Amino acid sequence: MDIVKTKELVYEYIRKREDGSIEAVKRAVDDVNITVKKGDFVAILGHNGSGKSTLAKQLNAILVPTEGTIWIDGKDTKDESLIWDIRQTAGMVFQNPDNQIIANVVEEDVGFGPENLGIPTEEIWKRVDESLKAVGMTEYRYHSPNRLSGGQKQRIAIAGILAMKPSCIVLDEPTAMLDPNGRKEVLQALLDLNRKEKITIILITHYMEEVIHADSVIIMDKGKVVMEGTPGQIFQQVEKLQELRLSVPQVTELAYRLEKGGLLINNKAILSVDELIEELIKWKKTSQCVNRK
Amino acid sequence: MGKERGGDIIIRDITIGQYYPAKSVLHSLDPRVKLAGTFLYIISLFIFESLSGYVLAGLILLLTIKASHVPFSYIVKGLKSVVFVMMFAVFFNVFFSHGQHQLVKYGVISITVEGIELACFMAIRLVYLILGSSLMTFTTTPNQLTDGLEKALAPLNRLKIPVHEIAMMMSIALRFIPILLEEADKIMKAQSARGADFETGNLMTRAKRLVPLLVPLFISAFRRANDLAMAMEARCYRGGEGRTKMKPLKYKRLDYVGYSLVASYLGIVFVIENYII
Amino acid sequence: MSIRLEHVNYVYSSGTAYEKHAVKDLNITIESGEFIGIIGHTGSGKSTLTQLLNGLIKATDGHIYYNDKSIYDKKFDMRQLRGQVGLVFQYPEHQLFETSIIRDVSFGPANMGLAKDEIEKRAKMALMQVGIGEDLFEASPFELSGGQRRRAAIAGVLAMEPSYLILDEPTAGLDPKGREEILELIRWLHETRHITVLLVSHSMEDVAEYVNRIIVMNHGQIAFDGVPKEVFKNYRELEKIGLAAPQVTYVMNQLKDNGFQVETDAVTVEEAYEAIKVWARKEGVIL
């Protein structure tokens, strides 16, 4: 069963003059057809203005497609009667952690979503406990969000979504404003949720190193999907990525250069230091054998 | 700790209205009791006309401070920020008062014994008022406070007053005040780095010089409001209807004790003012 | 020409529960012409350091000398220092306030009390330098893209024609394209305009690629100070303080651990590639 499915999706921002006539139309999302399987970890990459955030907002029915259709767990986002159902199914985390925390105490913020859903008090407490535990923030439950680090705040925001028991979480550049440690924290929390809680994760980012653990990667440019595949398949196409001016992790680039320079023969993308070392050791052995002969 | 903070941030020293986490009887009281108590206490301050009244109110205040477990020095720090307002009030009372025992008369300025007396009492009243109300905010989280207000004002719903929405707005405002203060500090520094001067000049030029601070601050506030609205919508917020509470307000025995103490205080005030003097 | 810090300490919120010793006994000399990267995790004191350098905050004790003159001297012209040591804050585009880009960029030079045509000349030049064309001079900041806004904000500091430029994470929140543009701009300012640059960054890869000296801050003190290759040799110590070396440094070190006789001091992809090539020739394994 696909948790997300889009068909010929188009979204246009329309700027109107004061008299109501149309001044400019900007097509932010252009004929996008994607599917996300339940339980997958999907990364969507692209530059600012590539349409990735506009796509994300449509997954949560904050924006409704200009043309085409999105189904979230089989529900059409255009159907207004399903809107709360859809938002509960596909929870959304935004870029700036400060601007999405509503309450002044961590645990009360996590309870905000369930309160809105009309969940009985006892159940809210249970959900808050579980959600805080899942993101490793239980010990901060009585704290004020103001004194937490960016990574911690973002984990609170994730817990707040989690408490609504979504089957899918969409994150719109959740790490863009964080330092490296905060980024690591958030990414680890997401991987845990995906593996332990079986929650579908749709991560929108422009950091290449965050997508290497994903099940699949979608790359957008100028509103269109330009590349799609597993991280391995994507990172093999170093030249195409560089053309799109997306920076590749240093090891991937090094492996690519070595291969081009004839210093390494391999036919898969290198995503981590360990993989490169392994390949180089293998290559050293075989090439030494060849040389001896 | 979040972002690195440098500089001597004067704005941060304002403790008034900030929650002080501690475990005390006062902290565990229902916010409605505290709201009612504070409200009635403030009213009582304006009923007094006698010295014994001031003594009683002061005594009660001291006892409550003791019971709140908030350090006295912390409370006094909160007072500092309102000293200016207080001096202003006192100043007016001292220099522009009428009374029989005139001490100095020079043009519009007149100092009288009654004026000085009045000024002193005014100052004491103000101190009591500020201490009393800040004691409430010290011991009540903003959320409890808004919950308490929402519940206490619930009858107004019938008059089509959106009580829930007002309470929610208050709560959000309280959450964003420290964030915006920090931001103001940052923008001020950034503009100072470009040679902006916020400190010298007369009132008019100073006000004009605030533009480089206020414009970015407003833009930022709007951006945050926009983001927040979207985030709230994404978390299925749709007004007060059909909402449940994680921490519903329920009176405990302690709260009834609280109410009776407030009632007896009012009773004593009434007796003092009407029968003893 | 230099900036010299001697035994500089800075304590903020002194006497309250939030008291913090942000920098401790700092001794640094910044020579004219350097390109310095300042790294350290959040709260290590690097932001405090940047603000001390242009006099925005005053050291609790210690001395700062700008061209051998103490900036805390009563006769010292602090306003001139602000013009000489330009400071670009994090997310500088958030401080744009004027109705047009050119007016915003003019704010700094205008505060320096320059003549009108000089202000205009400087503002235009600064905008050209950051790659914002004449067609956008009169545009409102809201009409620009995120990357353009950031560059316009940097122009606002450049228009003061500083000799030193301090940038606090100038690439934060930008996409890869925007990051590269900013870093190339900074490199150009250093090489062509001969501006001394201090770049505060979280990205070890960026720092390794661009700067020629790294200062590592930890708990308000200097943990390491040297050329990138030397500093990143201490990658194990860097990890202990919540930092890391560039990925390729790990590659080279692990290769050595696995019996490859390679030089391990590479910090950029180019250097790593060369080092492996040298090794391959030596071993005769080249195909």
How would you describe this structure to a colleague?
The complex is a heterotrimer of chains A (293), B (277) and C (287). Chain A contains eleven helices and eleven strands. A six-stranded mixed β-sheet of chain A has the order 7-8-9-4-10-11, with helices on both faces. In chain A, helix 5 crosses helix 6. Chain A has 293 residues and is α/β, with parallel strands linked by helices. Chain B has 277 residues and is mainly alpha-helical. Chain B folds into two domains: 119 residues, no CATH class; 130 residues, no CATH class. A two-stranded antiparallel sheet of chain B has the order 1-2. In chain B, helix 2 packs antiparallel against helix 6, helix 3 runs parallel beside helix 6 and helix 4 crosses helix 6. Chain B is flat. Chain B starts with 24 loop residues before the first helix and ends with a helix. Chain C has one domain: P-loop containing nucleotide triphosphate hydrolases (Rossmann fold). In chain C, the strands form two sheets. A six-stranded mixed β-sheet of chain C has the order 6-7-8-3-9-10, with helices on both faces. In chain C, strands 2-1-4-5 form a four-stranded antiparallel β-sheet, with helices on one face. In chain C, helix 3 packs across helix 4 and helix 3 packs parallel to helix 5. Classes of the chains: A alpha/beta (293), B mainly alpha (277), C alpha/beta (287). Chains B and C meet through helix 8 and helix 10 of B and helix 1, helix 2 and helix 3 of C.
Topology:
The complex is a heterotrimer of chains A (293), B (277) and C (287).
Chain A: E1 2-16, E2 22-32, E3 35-37, E4 41-45, H1 52-59, E5 67-72, E6 75-76, H2 83-89, E7 90-93, H3 106-110, H4 112-117, H5 121-134, H6 150-162, E8 168-172, H7 180-196, E9 200-205, E10 216-221, E11 224-229, H8 231-236, H9 238-243, H10 250-260, H11 273-292
Parallel strand pairs in A: 4-9, 4-10, 7-8, 8-9
Antiparallel strand pairs in A: 1-2, 1-3, 1-5, 5-6, 10-11
Helix pairs in contact in A: 5-6, 6-7
Chain B: H1 25-28, H2 31-47, H3 51-68, H4 72-80, H5 83-95, E1 102-106, E2 109-112, H6 113-139, H7 142-152, H8 163-193, H9 203-209, H10 211-234, H11 253-276
Antiparallel strand pairs in B: 1-2
Helix pairs in contact in B: 2-6, 2-11, 3-6, 3-11, 4-6, 5-6, 7-8, 8-10
Chain C: E1 2-12, E2 20-31, E3 35-39, H1 46-53, E4 61-66, E5 69-70, H2 78-84, E6 85-88, H3 101-111, H4 116-129, H5 146-158, E7 164-168, H6 176-191, E8 196-200, H7 204-210, E9 213-218, E10 221-226, H8 228-232, H9 235-240, H10 247-257, H11 269-283
Parallel strand pairs in C: 3-8, 3-9, 6-7, 7-8
Antiparallel strand pairs in C: 1-2, 1-4, 4-5, 9-10
Helix pairs in contact in C: 3-4, 3-5, 4-5, 10-11
